[in-house]
Amino acid sequence: MHHVLMDQWSQGSSPLHARDPRAKILALLVFLIVLATTAPNAFSALVIDAAVLLAGILIAGLPPISLLMRAAVVLPFSLAFGLISWLAGDRLRALGLVEKSYLSTVAVLLVVGTTPLPLLLSGLEALGTPRLLALVAQFIYRYLFVVSEQAQHLRLAAACRQGRERQRRLGFRAAAGALAVLFARSYYRAEGIHRAMMARAFSGKFALFRRLQFRLSDGFFTLAVTAFLILVRIQ
Amino acid sequence: MHIPDNFLSTPVWATLDAVSIPAVGLMVKRAGRELEDTSIPLLGVMGAFVFAAQMINFPVGIGTSGHLVGGALLAFTLGAAPATVVMTAIIAIQAFVFQDGGVLALGANVFNMAVAGVLAGYLPFWMWAARRKKAAIFLGAFLSVMVSASLALGELLISGVAMPRPLVLVSMALFAMSALIEGAITISVVQAIERLNPGLVQKPEASNWRSLAVLSGVALVLGLVGFLWASSAPDGIQRLGTQLGLAAQTSFHAPFADYTAFTFDSAWLRRATAGLAGLLLVYAVCVAFGKMIGRRRSA
């Protein structure tokens, strides 16, 4: 599954992986804002932006083809809207929708592919995201796959009980029942998790394997990326 | 309904980011007050549940199927403020991990689905759950999807994304369909949950929700006005966007295309300054409003 792939990518040890998550988040924001305000037909600037991303992918040692393929998830949506704009005569916007949304997605993937999600979320928290929100996001990511697997089991079990003819699809009420069971099980699971956390003296914060440390090199990285992108933008 | 980056024009996403940050901050504070520390895992696991619920398909009519969106169900079981927090976390994870929705557009998506959608969905539940529970649940789930979809469509139109009228009408009809489906799914899931354990569906607490009810009313009106307006005159919204300078018109970008010197165009600088000042104002108003609501509640 693709998210497992992302987890593998983010475990690498390139200079980009080693940067503090805050440095990468800030650089990402600068990149996205610069891109959002670039004209769709400023091709030289867009090519340089794309080159920055490609250089990032190569430095990080991520597989370029599969990353670029993965970023294509945004294309059906942006191609559809691009086509509508094109037919409506707004060709510049059509171009911008497709190329800029694709580049933005590649940029996000590059950052997420070089930063494990727990670190990324701690970075967001250090940048001012409320602690409750960051904690909830951490929990969602941790239990996403557990609960999803349970959902698949429930679906399979319900399909088995239904018999051969209607095996492929659940009835409406059966699906509602399956969801209700999943809901109740998630609820009780949460209670169990809470008791286990208390037993292990949860301090109100997840422990990280690596402490966040904003080094001089991180500051230099953010400054360099920011300065370069802004220079490209105003040429 | 997750808007990717670069679909909305800069003024639109920036404004919605400036609105969403204090709005979510307020909801986090409320949720923290309503819940004890015990419920952090609960919120997280329920968020994971909403993700997983998308795997279970509900047959609706000929060959098609729908799935639970979940904002309203979370509001009915966890309460409005915690549901907003969970939905915000879900939308952020979808943007970062699954590339579903943009990062700059996060404020817009959070506003549509986690703030306006959840509040508009909670309003009927809060008002009528005691007397007409079924109708309240159905209406709440319907509104949560309808309001967020209409807002998203309105934001796209005001950003200047050209959509011919028939297309707008067709997408409106599709939104209404999926909102009806969400209503049907939510009501049958809530009933099934109540058969398992009646305690899991909350009784809305009338006393501590009055101030947020005003906000939800605003969200609802905003969504409905957007819906009616967009369906009757999509060009009107576009024109308004252009007049207010919200739409990313090509003329707005044109000066940059062949910019060669370092000199700042004074018009550009003025516009950027005005834009930033406007954003700060929006942010300040939202923060002040949040503070006011907080004070009234503690008084």
Range of strand content of chain B: under 5%
Averaged pLDDT of chain A = 87
From the alpha carbons, calculate the radius of gyration of chain B and give it in angstroms: 20 Å
Number of domains of chain A: 2
Q: Look at the structure and give the mean pLDDT of chain B.
A: 80
Separation, N- and C-terminal Cα atoms of chain A: 42 Å
How would you describe this structure to a colleague?
The complex is a heterodimer of chains A (235) and B (299). Chain A is mainly α and 235 residues long. Chain A has 2 domains: 2-115 and 211-234, no CATH class; 131-199, no CATH class. In chain A, 77% of the residues lie in helices and 0% in strands. Chain A is built from 11 helices and no strands. In chain A, helix 3 (21-36) runs antiparallel to helix 7 (91-114), helix 3 packs parallel to helix 11 (216-234) and helix 9 crosses helix 10 (172-199). The longest helix of chain A has 32 residues, at 131-162. Chain A is globular. Chain B is mostly helical. Chain B has a single domain, classed as Arp2/3 complex 21 kDa subunit ARPC3 (Orthogonal Bundle). Helices cover 73% and strands 1% of the residues of chain B. Chain B has helices at 10-34, 40-53, 71-78, 80-96, 106-128, 133-158, 165-196, 210-232, 234-243, 250-257, 266-298, and strands spanning 58-59, 65-66. A two-stranded antiparallel ribbon of chain B has the order 1-2. In chain B, strand 1 and strand 2 (65-66) form a beta hairpin. In chain B, helix 8 (210-232) crosses helix 9 (234-243). The longest helix of chain B is centred in the last third of the chain and has 33 residues, at 266-298. Chain B is globular. Classes of the chains: A mainly alpha (235), B mainly alpha (299). Chains A and B meet through helix 3, helix 6, helix 7, helix 9 and helix 10 of A and helix 1, helix 2, strand 1, helix 4 and helix 7 of B.
